[in-house]
Write a structure and sequence with these properties.
two-stranded parallel ribbon; 9 strands
Length: about 280
Amino acid sequence: MGEYSGRTAVVTGAGSGLGGAMADLFAGAGAKVALLDIDGERAEAKAAELRARGTEAFAIKVDVADPASVAAAAAAVQARFGACEVLCANVGVQQFGAIDKLTAEDWSWVMSVNVMGVINTVNAFLPLLRSATGDRHVVLTASSSYFVPGVRLGAYTTSKYAVVGYGEILRLELEEEGINVTLLFPAGMSTRHLESSKLARPADLGESQLNPDDIQAMMASRDMKTETHVATPEHAVRNLLTELRDKRPYVISHGSYRTQIEVRQCEVLASFDRMQAAP
């Protein structure tokens, strides 16, 4: 028996990485878990692993960029578990490249998955959240790049800014219904993110290109130490249950960029001061 005993958690991107760690976390807290992923085989393997530990879990192959695919997944969760108390819209594909080198196809793909994928997921599962009772949570995976942008991450960072804006309004609109919305900001993680992104890209958009120089340029521009900025997914979610219990709007998973945030906020406040001092 655990904190989420008798309750249902739905996690997208649950076949591996951060989503897999989230699935483990909620399963360990007693929840029934629906694991959604575009890689159906990995999602099923993870679900089987959870079932072996005694968790009620099942996997669904889903393309979050396709509203019909996510709607079908929501119907399957309703038929299997009847409800959804926690929705983790853990969505994100990566495409490195200088802004003037990114193609229209690059932008279309990243935005359709990272932004519309989140919106499609929430739209599909919101009726199940609304029909449930007690504490209910929506967790949206943002990124540390929202606070500390880096070069060669134009498409990805733009998409995560959109997710943050969407999440802020979603929180305001769902607050009166007792549904909490939390934005999770993970930093770098030792996952299959780049590999899974490449595999998830539709063939008709052409192969995703990855230049090692882009990664090096990004790391250098963000002035971050690998030993503190890169962690395991399990470490990244270690305090998520506590933060949800307290209904925190923001969760910083890990990283050492507090100083950069403070400098940025000081610049914003200084702009207010200049505005007020202007004639």
